[in-house]
Amino acid sequence: SRKAFYTAERMAGGAVEEDEVPSIVLDSGSSRLRAGFAGDDSPCLTMPAVIGRRGSPHQRPEVLVGDDALSTGPVPQLGLTQPVQRGVLVDFDDAELLWRHAIEAGLRADPEQHPLLLAEPPLNPKCSREAAVQLLFESLGAPAVYLANASSLAMYASGRGSAVMLSCGDGVSHAEVIYEGYVVACSTRRVDCAGGDVTDAVRDVLRRRGCCLETPLERQLAADLKERLFRVSRRAADFDSPDEGDDAVDEFELPDGRGLVGLSHRDRAEPWELLLGRSNPARLQRLVAEALSSADIDTRADLWRNVVVSGGSTMADGFVERLTAELTELAPPGRHPVKLVALAERDFATWIGGSILASLSTFQERWVSRRQYEEFGPRVVHMMS
C-alpha cells in the first residue's frame, strides 16, 4: 500500500499517546468541491461548490449547501454564493460552511482529527493563502495543514517529473512549466476565462434559439448541455471556414421537459471558441506556448512532448484534438511532434495528485502543525516548502 499516515498526539490519562490518522484532501474549485482521504484512488465526494440561502426577508434564512442549494422549492431563494471565484477564496464564512459540510456530512469525519491538504491555484494571492490557513486551523480545528500547488498535484497524477501543465476548470485557466519537480520561475500564465465562461456562451446561443436559462438551476442545465450537445471543432478551419451544411439545424430534446431546441453545427461549436478561437489573444494554446518559452532552451524540445492537460473543461469532445493541432502550428519547425497527455481521470487529476502526495512517507514532515501555526500565525503558510 502507498498509504502513509500522519502521527497525531493526543492526551489520554495524563500521558501523550500517538494515533495514526489518514489525511483529508480538498480540491475546492469555483464550481465543484472534491474531497476524500489520502491514499484513495478517487475522491469520495464531488459536489457543487455553492451555498444557498432561502426564506422570507423577515426570517432567518435556511442555509443550503451543494446540491441542495441548486434545487428548487416552494420557498424562494434569497441568493447563491460561490466561496471560490476565479480560483480565489473570496467568502471565508461560506467556505467554512462548504468545507465543514463536505468533511462532516460527506466524509463522515471530524476535521479536528485529520490533517487537511488543500489544493491552491498558481499565483494564489497572499491574503487568500493566509485566510485559507487561518480558516483550516481556527474554524475547522485541523491538527495540521498543507497548501499544495494545483499544477504540481496534477503532475503527480500524471506520473511525470517534467511537463508543461495546462489546467482549465470552471473559473480560471493557467499554464506553467514544472521541471524535475520544481515550478520554473516566471513560467506561470493565467487567464480568467474557463469552463464557466463557456457555459455562459452556451446560454447565449440557446437564448438566440429561443431557450432562456437564467436561474442558477437553469445555468446548471446549461453546463450539462455544454457537455452533452456542444463540442470543440477539431481544427480552427472547421469553425472559421464552415461547410455549407454547417448551418443546417438539428433538433435536440432538452432534459427538463422544455421540448426541442434547434442547433446548427456552428452553434454547437461556437461557445468553445472562447477558449481556443484564434480571435482570442488569451487562448489556451497561447498560454502553453508562452509558459514553455520561459523554460531553458535546452529543455523545450522535451517539454513540447509533455504537455499535460487537466481540469473538467479539458474533457470536452474534441478538446484534445484541437489543442494538439493548434500547438503543432505554434511549435518551432523541426521539433518532434507535440504530444498531449490527457489522463482519463483528468477531471479530478488535482485531487488524485493530492492523494498521492499526502500519502507519501517522505511528505509527512512537511505538514504545518498547529503548534507552528500558534507560533507564527497565518504567515506560516509562506514557510511551506
Automatic annotation (TrEMBL):
InterPro entries attached to this UniProt entry: Actin, ATPase_NBD
Question: What residue range is the signal peptide?
Answer: none
* PANTHER family xrefs: ACTIN
Q: Which Gene3D superfamilies match?
A: 3.30.420.40, Actin, Chain A, domain 4
A Pfam family assignment: Actin
Q: Say what the protein does.
A: Actins are highly conserved proteins that are involved in various types of cell motility and are ubiquitously expressed in all eukaryotic cells.
Q: What is this protein called?
A: Uncharacterized protein
Which SMART domains does UniProt cross-reference here? ACTIN
Q: Which family does it belong to?
A: Belongs to the actin family.
